Amino acid sequence: MGKHYTIEFKQKVIDEYKSGNFGGYPQLAKRYGLSPGTVWHWIEKNHKQGNQINDINNSRGRKSVKNIDYKERYEILKKYQAFLKAQRERK
Q1: Into which CATH architecture does domain 7-90 fall?
Q2: How far, in whole angstroms, is CA 57 from its chain's centroid?
Q3: Chain centre to alpha carbon of residue 72
Q4: pLDDT value of position 25
Q5: What gap in Å lies between CA 53 and CA 66, rounded to an integer?
């Protein structure tokens, strides 16, 4: 079974890659004692998912719990409910 790394650690490596200050992913892999394929996988997954840090799985085959911004979702829901109320009142 492979090693498991924290989401924070994965994000640190991704951020360092994006900064360009530490070379490419092979150099980052060497710096942290990781396989270049592992670093590449993290970077690709992060890129495809639009920088959603908590979607970078910590375990194979299972989704990690997403960090949900409840306040933002609540505000969106309130606006949508107001929109629906206005739509009903027009009829």
Answers
A1: Orthogonal Bundle (1.10)
A2: 9
A3: 17
A4: 85
A5: 9
